[in-house]
Predict the structure.
Amino acid sequence: MGQIAPGTPPKIVRRLQRSRIAYLLILPAVVCMLLVHYGPMIWGFMISLRDVNVFTVRDWMNAPWVGLANYAEGFDPAGRLGARFWRSLWNVTYFGIVTISLSYIIGMAVAHVLNRPFFGRTLVRGLVLLPYVTPDSVAYSVWRFIFQARIGLVNKWLLALGLIEEPLIWLVGSRSIYAVMTAAIWKGWPFNALVLLAGLQSIPKELYEAAVVDGASGWARFRYITLPSLAPVTRTLILMSILWNFNAFNQFHVMLGRDPGLHADVPSTLIMREAFQSFNFGVGSAMSFALMAFTLVFTIIYLRMLQPREDRRGRK
Amino acid sequence: MLGRKSIVLALVLVLSLGTVTFAQTITFWLMPNAPDAIHVPWLDKHIAIFKEETGIDVKYEIIGWDAAWSRISVALLTGEGVDVFQAGTTWNPQFAATGGVAEIDINEFGGAESFMKANLDSTTYKGKYYGVPWFAETRALFYNKDMFAEAGVEPPNTYDELVEVGKKIVEVFGEGSAIAIAGTNAWDLIHNWAIILWAFGGDLLSPDNKQAVFNEQPGVEAMNWYVDLVRLGLASKASAEYNQPQADAAFISGNVAMAFMGPWNIAGIEVDNPDLNYGIVEPPAGPAGRAAFSGGSNLVILADSPNKEAAKKWIQYLLRPEVLTDYTKNLTHMLPTTYEAYDDPYYNEGVWQTFKKTLSYATAYPPLGVWGDIENAIVGEYKQILSDYVEGKLTDVQRYLDAAAGQVNRALARER
C-alpha cells in the first residue's frame, strides 16, 4: 500500500469504490445469507434469552425474559443438563480427534496408492468414493447391524479369530462411541483421500526427481517434499473436518438412537432431545449458541490460516 | 377478441372460485397403523364415502411415528400444515399444553361415558378435552405354546412365577431363551417398566402429580426384577441394545418363549411366522395385582385450523361404530376406544378377550405438559442402568432412580 496523498478519500472508501461491482455481484447471495442463516440465528439467540418452553413456545416473543439463566443451566456442571452438556462436548471432541486423524491417515495412504499409475485406476478412484456418497442413514443403519451383539459381523469375526470368548455388546455403554467412530472413519476417509490425491497431483514431479538424484529415501521424500507441499490442503481438510465434527448428529442418531447414552451423547443429540422432544427451546437454543461459540473458535483459526502470509504480514 | 378472452378468463376464475368454496378440503395426518397395501385402499374408500355424504374432501398423509412428532410439533408452533391429525396418547397432553390444539366438546363425539376411561384421560389437559380417542392398545404376555410344552410349564400368573417358568425354559432351551425384552434402544422402554412398577404397588408420580415416587421401594423392586431377567439369564444380555421391534422379532421367529407385545404384533406374526403356535395371557400379577399400560392414538384438531367443523365431521365419521370396528378389527388389529364397539362378539373370543380384559384395568400416564421431560429423565436413567449392568458396573438401582426422580421433580415444578 502506498502513501495516502492528502485530499484523497479514506482508504476504506477507496476500497469500497474500487470493488463496487464486486459488492453488487455478491449482494443477492448476502441477502439470502442474511435471510436464511442470520435471521434464524438472531431469532435463536433471542429465544435463548427467554424461558421458552412447552407452555410459552407458541407466544415466545412474550415468554418471560430470563437473561443468561438458560446459559447457566446448560453450563452448570453440577446440574444434570450442564453435566450432560460438558460430557457431550468431551464426547464429540474425543470422537473428532480419533475419527479426523484416522480418516486423514487412511486417506493419505489411499491417495498415495491412487496416485501411482496402474490399470483400472480411474475405476478404483470412483469406487473409493462409494462410502462417501452413500447416504448417512443407509450407511449407519448397516453399521448398526454390523455391530449388533448377537447377529453382527464384528462379533462373528472377533469370535472366529478367537479374540473374544463371548459376544461383546457394542451399541450400549462405553464401547458404543468406538462403534460410531469406526463407522464414521469408514465414511470419512474417502473424502480425505480425494482431496489429498488432488493435492498430490499438484506437486511438481521435478521435486521428486531432484530428490532421487540427491539420494533421498522414500521416507525422506515423503517427509520433506510431500508433507510440506500438502500443508495447505491438510490445513483446510482438518479444519473443515473439525467444523463438521462438532455438529455430528446422523451417525449417533442412526446407530444409537434418540438418546445415545452418557458415553456417546453429543451436543446435537442432547440439544435435539431438550428442544424438540421436551420443547425446552430456551435451554436448547442456549446450548446451540454455546456449541456455535466452540465452532467459531475453530472458524477464526481457519480463516486466519487461509489468509495469504503476505496479507497477514502487511497488516502488522 | 380481447374482450371475449377476458370474459372467458373471468368465467374460469369465477368457476374455480366456486369449486374452492363448494369442495372444502381438510388435511389429515396419520401414522402407518396398517401396512400401506391395505391401509391406503381403506382410506381412499372411506374418504370417497365421506365426500359423498358431506362434500368435504380429505387429503391424507401417512407419516412414520418419528417424523410425525416433528411434523406435528411444527404444525402446532406455526398453526398451519394440517387440520386434524393422529397423536399418540402420551403426546396429547404435551401438545395441548402448547395451546396449539383445539379444545373438544366431547359431547359432540358421543360423550365422556362412551369412551374407555384411560384413553379419554389421555386426551385431557387441566380437566379439558383436547382430542378424541381413536384406538387403544395394551401390552399382554405372548407365549410360545410349543416351547412351554417342551419345558413342561404353564403360562405364569405372577411375576414370581414368570421367573420360575423362565428358569425352566432356560434349562431346556439355553440362556436368553425365556423372554425377549427391549433395551436401551427402545423408545417405549418406559411402558415396559411402568406395568411392572404398578403391579409392584408403585407409581410414577404422587396422586397430585406434584412429585416423583417411582424411586420408592416398589420402584426399586420393579427395576431389580427387570434387571434380574438379564442377570438370571432369562433374557439375553444382548437385549440391552434391542429396540422393541428387535425384541418382538426374537419372539416371533420362535427363538424366545415369552414377550410383552401388543395387538399390532399379531399382524406381524401372520406375515413373518404364521406357523408360530402362540397364546396370549394377561400381564402377570405383582404383589399389588395386575396392571397394564393403556396406549393408542387420539384424533386431534389444530387450534388454528380454519376447517375445524369439517375436521370434527371427519372424526365423527371415523368413530362411527361400523367404521371404527372395521378399522380396528380388520385393518390395524388395534382395539376400539368406545365401549359400544366391544358389543361385537369378535371381542369375546380368543386373544381379543384377553386384550379386552387387560384394557379394562389399563391405565394412562398423568396428563402433563412436561411429560416429555419426565419420560426423557426416566428413560435416560433406565438406559444407564441397563448399560452399566452389561458392563458389570451396576451397583444399586436406587441411585439411578433417585437421579431420575430429581430431574422429574424439577420438571414438575415447571408444570403450570
In short: The two ends of chain A are 13 Å apart (CA to CA). Chain A has one domain: 15-204+230-315. Chain A has a mean pLDDT of 89.
